[in-house]
From TrEMBL:
Protein name: Aminopeptidase
UniProt membrane topology term: Lipid-anchor; GPI-anchor
Keyword Transmembrane among UniProt keywords: yes
SUPFAM superfamilies recorded: Leukotriene A4 hydrolase N-terminal domain, Metalloproteases ('zincins'), catalytic domain
Organism whose genome encodes this protein: Anopheles farauti
Length: 948
């Protein structure tokens, strides 16, 4: 069979050898993908201990900037006396102070060599005498001592000349590339959030130091240049070079400055343009269309049109081949991974299209919540990201009205963040940060998801119109300023005096409550206690103001305005409480809490779920019940047998949202089911998915079907095929074989994930090589992701090795390496092979992924999925033998992962009897009769769940 590396057909064996050679040769230039501000990683590496006093990481308030003039001259090719991937820079910063006799100026710089600097009093151009500067490499603070103190309320100008570096780590002003006809084309782009503007020019690199910026770029004439604002002039200072000057920006934080130097083209209309490499221009139309609509819709919703900012006469959105973040909200020049902005209907899935629209909405929302109104420091990142995540769904819903985004929000955001927030390691939304690592780490699901969830909770409490009015006032009050939570609370309190007292505790307290409902003679008693999934018997006394709504009949679920209650427990009077159909708390899951019920109430809920029409229980509350049951069982609060019995209702569920919640719960459960019970678990999965499979069928979506029904099909087919559903597998393999024989007729995008996966799982090395060649040659980034997912379903150690070689080589771009590795280990068959690969090639992996902490992260993700003591022991032996090579931090991190394996094993043993008894009773009691004759059950022990 043949695999193409850089377009050259070679044998599989030779491909593997050459891949390893390429890894070693190129590893020095490779870095790992970082946590994305848009998509925070769920699992973080062990944070390095601060090596300075915490307060030393922050600038003082002595000096404030008001304007920057910056000129950048990049060298994307080596020139006389100029090294490739460096740039000459000059920066002039206007500063002032309100204090008398300031004798030093502190600001940031990194990865640059300053050749000269001076300080001038602008009123008379007098040079201020200075002393020798000092620099702290840990805090990245440059200190400029002055022989003559600064005087209050006068303007001074700091001038710097320096040389910077265009690294390939996707931070600062960095280099990227793409191919045209097999030739590498270099380009430069920026990513400054949170603390990397200082790598492009000396600056006061904290959000509160807002200033205006005027940028000039001296560039080769074959390149085009773009920045936050339009071009105002262009001259030719030397042969083959242009000096392009951009308009002055609004007053903004340094992390929002952006510029691109690339031979890009623009698809432009109505004040918006999509920037992309020329070969990708045919993928920009949808982003342009939806971007124009979103910019207008959000401007109207907030009652502050984008054009109200005089400098913002147009908006550009750029597709960048290498980009650490999912996207970035630079004012007037939004930047994106190609997968998050480039779309082709014949190569991208329906869900990828939604993702693109939602990401654009997220970044456009930042033009107000982040750019115009900016969090004062990263300890309140949620004031930027919580709003952007909220509008990611509710803003997109303004223009894409048929996607049920409000429902998707509940499972993806509210239920999603509950996982992280149920651990002792969580933190409050408002949380102190000082170091660069801490600033990066706060960009997590708490700031994003929980921030958005808390805003939705307040929206339902205040009402849509009042909530909108309050936010409009907030934006106008804080425009061009920074903000703290008290500013938002003050705006909300104008329209409801209780708003702050109800909202603030959710922002300053970690975690969330478990609310227990018990029947009384006159109604129901409500009790709250913090939910910690691994510590059900904890003594934490934290309480929250509880937003309470409830339904005792179908018509009640539409009443989502909660009433807030305080205290550990309280009573709700309900006439004839014993006779109600059910008692379900938290209508449409507006409140951020889990709910448990006494046995009688669970019995009523179960009866309703198993009745026709699910007893009229709202689809979001069905999803809530599913998610709560899985997690209450996991937390030893509801027996697994009880939870699984109630969840048998899923056999008749045909809505996407409850199934999405179920898939999240089943994913976790599948990793904890005892290895000896996996055959029974497989039969259970095939049973509960049987009707859903018959409902969605293995077919391309019709033009008239609901968008979420298409999403449901993708999930159901993936699970059915993964667990050996014969009809699903045959259909997927047949479609892959047809594509293999005639690649000009593509698989429908919404079937590709399952077709590629099953085709590779059941196929040959030739099939693998064919799909790998598709990955290397496609011009569509979204298609590359689908192919990586498919290739990761390989079922031989040889092909798994090929995948891991590719991940550690330049063939998988740095931004995609982390996801590609996750795809591989979500195929549980690969775990022992991946573990051995890392043990054998740890040095290569460390070099390719920026150090041994990435090796530790890889092992820990394997350990979280393993069910084999022997494999666990091999990893333990490996780290003991290689402790000195790993380093103390990586060693300690893997030790923590080993302890996690032991905890997971204890969990499995503790719950095995309950789970296996349920499965055995169900399967051997006849519930699985409809699949009893399915011959493919034999050998399914190797086929286990994957999480997408």
């Amino acid at each position: 069979m043949l695999v193409s590396f850089l377009g050259n057909p070679i044998s599989m064996t030779m491909a593997k050898k050459l891949a390893l050679v390429a890894i070693v040769a190129c590893a020095c230039a490779l870095v790992s993908a970082r946590a994305s501000p848009l998509d925070p990683e769920r699992y973080f590496l062990v944070e390095a201990e601060p090596r300075a006093q915490l307060e030393d990481y922050r600038l003082n308030d002595d000096v404030w900037p008001s304007h920057y003039d910056v000129e950048i001259k990049p060298y994307l090719e080596a020139e006389t006396n100029k090294a490739q991937f460096t740039f000459d820079g000059s920066a002039k910063i206007t500063v002032s102070t309100t204090k008398q006799d300031v004798t030093q100026i502190k600001l940031h710089m990194a990865r640059m060599e300053i050749s000269e600097w001076n300080v001038t009093r602008m009123s008379d151009n007098a040079i201020i005498p200075t002393q020798v500067q000092s620099y702290d490499a840990e805090t990245e603070i440059l200190t400029l001592p002055l022989s003559t103190p600064l005087q209050a309320n006068l303007d001074y100008q700091l001038s710097f000349a320096y040389v910077g570096h265009m690294d390939d780590d996707m931070h600062g002003f960095y280099r990227s590339y793409y191919y045209v006809n097999g030739e590498k084309v270099w380009m430069g782009s920026t990513q400054f959030q949170q603390t990397h503007a200082r790598r492009a020019f000396p600056c006061f690199d904290e959000p509160k130091y807002k200033a205006t910026f005027q940028l000039k770029i001296n560039h080769k004439t074959q390149y085009n240049v773009y920045s936050n604002t339009p071009i105002v002039s262009s001259t030719n200072p030397e042969t083959g070079r242009s000096l392009t000057t951009f308009a002055v920006t609004p007053s903004m934080s340094s992390y929002l400055v952006a510029f691109i130097v690339a031979p890009y083209q623009v698809n432009e209309r109505d004040g918006m343009g999509i920037l992309a490499r020329p070969e990708a221009q045919n993928q920009t139309q949808y982003s342009l269309d939806v971007g124009i609509k979103l910019l207008d819709a959000l401007g109207k919703w907030i009652d502050y049109p984008y054009s109200n900012v005089p400098a913002m006469t147009r908006m550009y959105m750029a597709a960048v081949p290498d980009f650490s973040a999912g996207a970035m909200e630079n004012w007037g020049l939004l930047t994106y991974r190609e997968t998050n902005i480039l779309y082709r209907s014949d190569d991208s899935t329906s869900l990828q299209q939604q993702r693109i629209a939602a990401v654009i909405s997220h970044e456009i929302a930042h033009q107000w919540f982040g750019d115009l109104v900016t969090c004062e420091w990263w300890d309140v990142t949620w004031l930027n990201e919580g709003f952007a995540r909220y509008y990611q769904y509710f803003g997109t819903a303004l223009v894409e009205t048929d996607w049920d985004l409000e429902h998707q929000f509940v499972v993806e955001q509210l239920q999603g963040v509950m996982q992280m927030d149920s651990l002792m390691s969580t933190h409050p939304m408002t949380h102190p940060v000082y170091t660069q690592a801490q600033a990066s780490g706060i960009f997590d699901n708490i700031s994003y998801n929980k921030g958005a969830v808390t805003l939705r909770m307040m929206e339902h409490y205040l009402g849509k119109e009042t909530f909108q009015t309050a936010l409009r006032a907030y934006v106008k009050d804080r425009a061009f300023k920074t903000t703290r939570p008290e500013d938002l609370f003050s705006a909300l309190n104008r329209y409801d005096p209780n708003a702050r007292s109800y909202m603030e505790p959710w922002t300053v307290q970690s975690g969330y409550p478990l609310v227990t409902v018990t029947s009384t003679d006159n109604g129901f008693k409500i009790t709250q206690k913090r939910f910690l999934v691994d510590e059900p018997n904890h003594s934490d006394q934290t309480t929250w103001p509880l937003p309470i709504s409830y339904a005792t009949k179908p018509s009640d679920f539409s009443a989502t305005k909660p009433v807030f209650y305080t205290g550990v427990s309280f009573d709700i009077a309900v006439p004839n409480a014993a006779d109600v159909q059910y008692m379900i708390l938290n209508n449409q899951q507006v409140g951020y809490y889990r709910v448990n019920y006494d046995a009688i109430l669970w019995g009523k809920i179960s009866k309703a779920l198993h009745s026709e029409g699910f007893g009229g229980i709202h689809v979001l509350n069905r999803a809530q019940i599913v998610d709560d049951l899985f997690n209450l069982a996991r937390g030893d609060i509801v027996p697994y047998g009880t939870a699984l019995e109630i969840l048998e209702y899923l056999k008749d569920e045909t809505e996407y949202i409850p199934w999405l919640a179920a898939i999240n719960g089943l994913t976790t459960l599948s990793r904890r089911v005892h290895a000896d019970d996996e055959k029974l678990f497989t039969l259970h999965i095939l049973d509960i998915f049987s009707k859903a499979y018959d409902t969605v069928k293995f077919q391309a979506p019709s033009a008239s079907e609901r968008r979420v029904f298409t999403y449901m099909r993708q999930n159901v087919l993936q699970w059915a095929c993964n667990y050996g559903h014969e009809e699903c597998s045959k259909a997927a393999v047949a479609e892959f074989d047809r594509f293999y024989k005639n690649p000009t007729v593509k698989v429908h995008p919404d079937l590709r994930q399952v077709v590629y996966c099953e085709g590779i799982r059941k196929g040959t090395e030739d099939h693998f090589g064919f799909l790998f060649n598709q990955y290397l040659t496609t011009n569509v980034a979204t298609e590359q992701i689908l192919i990586l997912q498919g290739l990761s379903c390989a079922s031989t150690s040889e092909l798994i090795t090929i995948m891991l070689d590719a991940i550690a080589s330049p063939h998988v771009r740095s931004q995609d390496k982390s996801n590609a590795f996750t795809y591989v280990i979500n195929n549980a068959y690969t775990l022992p092979h991946v573990s051995r690969y890392l043990q054998q090639h740890h040095a290569i992996w460390a070099t390719a992924h920026n150090g041994y902490m990435s090796v530790a992260s890889a092992f820990n993700n394997i350990l979280s999925r393993l069910k084999s003591d022997s494999e666990r022991d091999m990893i333990s032996a490996f780290i003991e033998t290689n402790k000195n090579i790993l380093g103390q931090s990586a060693y300690d991190s893997i030790k923590t992962g080993l302890n996690g394996y032991d905890s997971n094993k204890q969990f499995t043993e503790r719950n095995r009897e309950e789970i296996s008894d349920f499965l055995d009773k169900k399967i051997n009691g006849g519930a699985a009769a409809v699949i009893a004759n399915m011959s493919m059950i034999v050998g399914l022990l190797m086929v286990v769940i994957a999480h997408w």
